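Continuing the batch. This is chain 6 of the set; chains 1 through 5 are on the previous pages. Same settings as before, nothing changed between runs. Recording input and output for traceability.
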Amino acid sequence: MPEPEINLPEIVAEVTAAFQRYEAALVGNDVAVLDELFWDDPRTIRYGAGENLYGYDQIKAFRQARSAAGLERELANTVITTFGRDFATANTEFYRSGKIGRQSHCWARLGPGWRIVAAHVSMLSQGLALGLAQGS
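Output for chain 6:
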């Protein structure tokens, strides 16, 4: 089987736009866009900082119940890698209220467009976060 083409510029641009749309919806608490960007399927997974969500319905319910307060954050070290024309990963660090977190997405081009099929969010422990912030 031939290797997929990695980081075709037009595909990177598409996924970057989808990722930026997600980020704007996240910090703006635009639940409709967040729901749209996740694959509407029971196989979709989102491991959050404090919850494990299995299936689109659980993810959607989490978004609807989440507080809109304190969602602002800054991103750093975002890496988007595409594999062929229909699959990509997006990984980033984020900084919120003095804490450092990480976010990973697997994106797939499906019938309606680019959708998150798996996501993971985690926070670094305070000691490790301080070491990274100080360049250790």
